[in-house]
Amino acid sequence: MTAIIEINHLKKNFGENEVLKDINVSVEKGEVLTIIGSSGSGKSTLLRCINLLEKPTSGEIVYQGENVLQKGYNLPKYRTHLGMVFQSFNLFNNMDVLENCMSGQITVLKRSREEAKKIAFENLEKVGMSRFVSAKPAQLSGGQKQRVAIARSLSMNPDVMLFDEPTSALDPEMVGEVLKTMKDLAQTGLTMVIVTHEMQFARDVSDRVIFMDKGVIAEEGTPEDLFVNPKEDRTKAFLSRVLS
After folding, report:
1. What is the distance, to the nearest Å, from the Cα of residue 103 to the centroid of all Cα atoms in its chain?
2. Judging by DSSP bridges, how do beta strands 3-14 and 58-63 pair with one another?
3. Where in the chain does DSSP place strands (E)?
4. How, if at all, do strands 191-195 and 160-164 pair?
5. Residue 155: which residues within 8 A CB-CB, separation 6 or more?
6. PROSITE patterns in the record, alphabetically (predicted)?
7. CA–CA gap between residue 244 and residue 241 (Å, rounded)
8. Cross-sheet strand order for the sheet of 32-36
9. Within 13 Å, how many C-alpha atoms sit on residue 52's CB side?
10. Neighbour-count burial of 68, counting CB atoms closer than 10 A to its CB (0-12 exposed, 13-18 middle, 19+ buried)
11. Domains of the chain, with CATH numbers?
């Protein structure tokens, strides 16, 4: 497999507080990588550093052989290769579902309206939301909004999709529909990095799982390694807490 993103010696401080301490990890093309850990372990900060919503304090993020943190690198172009799905949907309330999935394509990728519309519709169909094209976000449930947010990201044709706890703001009965959508996407060969607290989902869809604790990667391996035979005491303690 070839690494699409390599993270080397990444650190992130907020003032005196060191949130990420020397993170080294690669994301392989076509891989589903999930990141688990307690609140405050640095999971979401790592994700936000990958797409540069947070600027790392030091280290490298290598995308297709180039360090994106070097001076003069084209950051806006790099960001177009990454899709991001947030906890809180971030849809435009004044636009309908179809327009939400078209606007980025038109403004950022300079696609024609016709092409953007076709691509948006295909992706809405993929996530089971094509019959809601004319609905405004206010008319949708949380699970439906999140599926539109996924379709919007997919419509930008990203190389890597980043998911930051995409089900944490949802009512329990809506979690399943979003996880099913993500599971279906995982089977298409899309490269995905997912921060999640849904352990069964992580176990089912991941090629590799990372357990973070206090700003470091404490353990990583296959779902079998992590969930069945964890080596580190802190991994065992975390899993016994969340799985009990």
Report:
1. 20
2. antiparallel
3. 3-14, 17-28, 32-36, 58-63, 66-67, 82-85, 160-164, 191-195, 208-213, 216-221
4. parallel
5. 101, 102, 104, 105, 116, 119, 120, 123
6. ABC_TRANSPORTER_1, ABC_TRANSPORTER_2
7. 6
8. 82-85, 160-164, 191-195, 32-36, 208-213, 216-221
9. 20
10. buried
11. 3-89+159-243 (3.40.50.300)
Q: Which residue has the tokens 């997912």?
A: 194
Residue with tokens 């001076």: 71
Amino acid at 155: S
**Residue that has been written with the tokens 């809405």 in this structure:** 124
Tokens of 78: 């790099």
Look at residue 173 and tell me whether its pLDDT is greater than 90. no
With 70 as the cut, is the pLDDT of residue 1 above it? no
Gap between the Cα atoms of 17 and 47, Å rounded: 18
CB atoms under 10 Å from CB of 220, counted, come to: 16
Question: What letter does residue 32 receive in the DSSP assignment?
Answer: E
Long-range contacts of 234-241 (CB under 8 A, 24+ apart): 235/211, 238/36, 238/37, 238/38, 238/211, 238/213, 239/199
Please tell me what DSSP assigns to residue 208: E
Buried b (16+ CB within 10 A) or exposed e, 134-163: ebbbeebebbbbbbbbbbbbbbbebbbbbb
Indicate the helix (H) or strand (E) that contains 129: none
pLDDT tens-digit map of 35-45:
999 998 999 99
Burial of residue 1 (number of CB atoms within 10 Å: 0-12, 13-18, 19+): exposed
Mean pLDDT, the chain, integer? 94
- pLDDT at 244 exceeding the cut of 80: no
The residue written with tokens 């802190």 in the block is 234
